[in-house]
Design brief:
Layout (H helix, E strand, L loop, with lengths): L4 E7 L2 E7 L3 E6 L5 H20 L7 H20 L1 E5 L4 H24 L6 E7 L7 E7 L4 E6 L4 E4 L8 H4 L1 H16 L10 E5 L3 H20 L13 H12 L11 H12 L1 E5 L7 E5 L6 E2 L5 H15 L3 E7 L7 H16 L3 E5 L3 H14 L4 H8 L12 E8 L5 E6 L1 E2 L2 E2 L2 H18 L5
Helix pairs in contact: 1-3, 1-5, 2-3, 6-9, 8-9, 8-10, 10-11
Length: about 450
């Protein structure tokens, strides 16, 4: 996983923040402090891609011109030698300058695109690409197709026709140069170049039950506004783009295809441990979501089942019927869950992460966090295997500190939020906002209940 840091200032209620995403990233803290804002921004970077982040127009700057010339020269060497490896450290300052000048120019458009609104402001947006010392750009001639193949760290690739380098054609075509530069940033950060792509970055919003119960009505409104004459269109306030992404994902699930063997066991774990039944699409043309309780053959429409089922069904259906899932952005996974099920949700989260799917989560659940802490502690115990056998845990349940980052958001005076990264200790993460609230509740309980024992 690529390591880069996001820095923001004066973003909504957030005074400042520095975020480095991990396989499991948790945002905890006060209500209405900006957790969903940070999640939406990170989702936008990963899902909308470099094209939306930097804009479609060539960034006019000396550093951009120098970077373009450097890339062209490396490709010319590759044509001569058939293969060429260039250290990114040589152009790290240029890469950083171009990226952040592009972000400064395009940040307002980028945020507007995420929220479908002009009402969300951002003072500063920058990205630190991290250490590029041991990272290399490799250009190699693909003789079979007659193309130059570019890659970084032997991961994702892009192709260039060497004919465009003949003469001064490529040097005059700034649009092509900008496309190349964006491809390089995509490879370095391991994010998409544009919104289209095979990897799915999926946002699961907090109001999952409401969206699942009304998604057909929402789709109807969308059709009316797309295909009806202007006078017949219904007026509506647009959702933010992460929610539109969620609705698109749910609407596009291909129920006719063979279930994804990579993730099906994760869905079945949730059904076995949390819903006491399976979630399926009906065979009817409308593909209604049905809940089939354990021991029953007939399904029950989603509108008639408990909130636990409706909250969990999007995650279950996506794991069953989607593929190429890169990351979930999951708001409040504890929603509608009894404390016992919150602990099981912590187990589900760990298993999803260990299956290679990233997760970024907002949560108010100290129970979920405690389960994560337990799995970190258990991983490091000498008697780990014995305890795992006794408590029925496996390697897929364990976590280590390097996999997890926790950020606490705390509201301060004048409505601004301070974002602090919490350190992982021997026993995991300690969240002051959780502990302060619990201490206050217990102190009040002792005060009130004390008289009963006098």
């Amino acid at each position: 996983m690529a390591s880069w840091k996001l820095r923001v200032e004066n973003y909504g209620k957030i005074k400042s923040a520095e975020i480095e995403i991990a396989p499991l990233t948790l945002f905890v803290g006060d209500n209405n402090s900006g957790k969903s804002y940070l999640m939406s921004l990170l989702w936008g970077i990963e899902n909308l891609g470099v094209g939306a982040l930097l804009g479609s127009e060539y960034l006019e700057s000396e550093e951009t011109d120098e970077l373009s010339e450097w890339f062209i020269s490396q490709m010319e060497i590759a044509i001569q030698k058939k293969k060429h490896i260039a250290p990114l450290e040589d152009v790290s300052e240029m890469l950083s300058s171009v990226l952040n000048k592009g972000l400064e120019k395009n940040k307002d458009n980028f945020v507007r695109r995420i929220f479908n609104s002009d009402n969300v402001s951002i003072g500063k947006l920058s990205i630190d690409l991290g250490c590029l010392k041991e990272r290399y750009l490799c250009f190699e001639m693909n003789e079979k197709y007659g193309l130059i193949e570019g890659s970084i760290d032997s991961e994702r690739t892009f192709l260039i026709n060497p004919n465009v380098l003949k003469g001064d054609f490529f040097r005059k075509e700034k649009e092509l140069q900008w496309t190349l530069i964006q491809s390089i940033f995509s490879l370095i950060m391991l994010i998409k170049t544009g919104e289209l792509g095979n990897e799915k970055i999926i946002y699961l919003p907090a109001a999952r039950t409401g969206f699942m119960l009304t998604k057909d009505i929402i789709n109807k409104v969308g059709r009316n506004n797309t295909f009806n004459l202007p006078d017949d269109r219904e007026k509506f306030t647009p959702f933010v783009r992460p929610i539109n992404n969620f609705l698109d994902i749910m609407g596009d699930l291909n129920v006719g295809q063979k279930k994804n063997e990579n993730y099906i066991h994760l869905a079945e774990d949730i059904e076995h441990e949390m819903t006491d039944g399976t979630i399926e699409f009906s065979d009817m043309p409308n593909k209604e979501v049905m809940y089939v309780p354990d021991g029953h053959k007939k399904g029950i429409p989603l509108r008639l089942v408990s909130a636990v089922v409706t909250e969990l069904c999007p995650l279950i259906l996506i794991l069953k019927h989607s593929d190429n899932i890169a990351r979930f952005y999951y708001e409040e996974p504890e929603m509608c869950l009894h404390p016992q099920l919150q602990s099981r949700m912590g187990k589900v989260i760990a298993r999803i992460v260990n299956a290679g799917i990233g997760m970024a989560i907002t949560t108010h659940s100290d129970i979920i966090l405690q389960h994560i802490n337990n799995m970190i502690k258990l991983q490091n115990r000498k008697d780990c295997n014995e305890i795992c056998d006794r408590l029925h845990y496996g390697k897929e349940d364990l976590l280590n500190c390097d996999q997890v980052r926790v950020y606490q958001l705390k509201a301060r005076a004048k409505g601004k939020t301070v974002v602090e990264e919490l350190n992982c200790g021997e026993n995991g993460f300690i969240v002051p906002t959780f502990n302060d609230a619990l201490d206050s509740i217990m102190s009040e309980a002792y005060e009130i209940q004390g008289d009963l024992h006098e």
